[in-house]
From TrEMBL:
Belongs to the peptidase S54 family. Keywords: Hydrolase, Membrane, Transmembrane, Transmembrane helix. It comes from the Bacteria. The keyword Ubl conjugation does not apply. This is Rhomboid family protein. PANTHER family: PRESENILIN-ASSOCIATED RHOMBOID-LIKE PROTEIN, MITOCHONDRIAL, RHOMBOID PROTEASE. It is found in: Membrane. It comes from Algoriphagus boseongensis. InterPro entries: Peptidase_S54_rhomboid_dom, Rhomboid-like_sf, Rhomboid_protease_S54. Residues 46-103, 173-253 form the Peptidase S54 rhomboid domain. One of its GO terms (cellular component) is membrane. Coiled coil: none annotated. One of its GO terms (molecular function) is serine-type endopeptidase activity. It holds the Pfam family Rhomboid.
Length: 263
């Protein structure tokens, strides 16, 4: 497998691994600078649309993305050529970041409206619903406060604390960055499925062969399901994955129309 690695895939693997090691052991502040923040955040910088895709949360995050690139990238590079593979990776990665940023703005505005509605009418039941919807941001102790607030709905101290809690949620939501090359990788996956739909891939779990078009189709359906579910405890940027799939599909569809573009 490693003997067949192609130049662009090799360079992307090397860059991602080196950046991960540097950010993990030499300059940890790189994670704060190069991750992609909400464009309304004070930490946002335009270059993050590019740099976020070279940052990873941990080893397994890096491993899963680079393993996918290693499995699907070389054949695509041989078929499309180095320039088109690199274009596919970069356009899907940057494009996924841009689309995800738009989605993040929508989510933040939706949450902000709910917080303003609570401040206009401090209702313990409404506060409890907001806590449940955003429980990924909370320690379990917050539910003790919810119970106390429910028993003392008119207490100014409880109302003030509830408002501070919701403002904290807004700040955390605004300043929670995204990292990883998953958007770019999903572009690679959909390109492989469109160009080699009937290629048999052997899964490890469960151990069985499956055609590329079915595997990527299942990934797409799973991603759409998670975007719609929007679980508060799920820290995976499923919308970025879906964006990478869509952008990759559009690119390959246009390339396929011009057969002379393959070399």
């Amino acid at each position: 497998m490693f003997r067949n690695i192609t130049p662009v895939v090799q360079n992307l693997l090397l860059i991602n691994v080196v950046v991960f090691l540097v950010a993990s052991f030499v300059f940890p502040t790189l994670n704060n600078w190069f991750a992609l923040y909400n464009i309304q955040s004070e930490h946002f910088k335009p270059f993050q649309f590019l740099t976020y895709m070279f940052m990873h949360a941990d080893f397994w995050h890096l491993f899963s993305n680079m393993f996918g690139l290693l499995i699907f990238g070389p054949l695509l590079e041989q078929f499309l050529g180095p320039k088109k593979l690199f274009t596919l990776w970069m356009v899907c990665g940057v494009g996924a970041g841009v689309l995800y940023s738009g989605y993040s703005i929508y989510q933040y505005k939706n949450l902000e409206d709910k917080v303003l509605a609570f401040e206009a009418n401090p209702d313990p039941e409404y506060f409890n619903r907001l806590v449940i919807e955003n429980r990924g941001y909370f320690a379990p102790e917050v539910f003790d406060f919810v119970d106390n607030f429910s028993r003392n709905p008119e207490d100014p101290a409880y109302i003030e604390r509830a408002e501070r809690t919701l403002q904290t949620i807004l700040k955390l939501n605004l300043n929670s960055p995204m990292v990883g090359a998953s958007g770019a990788l999903f572009g690679i996956l959909v390109a492989f499925a469109m160009l080699f739909p009937n290629t048999q891939l052997f899964l490890l779990f469960p151990p069985m062969p499956v055609k590329a078009k079915y595997l990527v189709g299942a990934y797409a359906l799973y991603t759409i399901y998670n975007v719609m579910l929007n679980s508060p405890t799920d820290n995976v940027a499923h919308f970025a994955h879906l964006s990478g799939l869509v952008i990759g599909a559009i690119l390959v569809y246009n390339w396929k129309k011009d057969r002379n573009s393959f070399y």
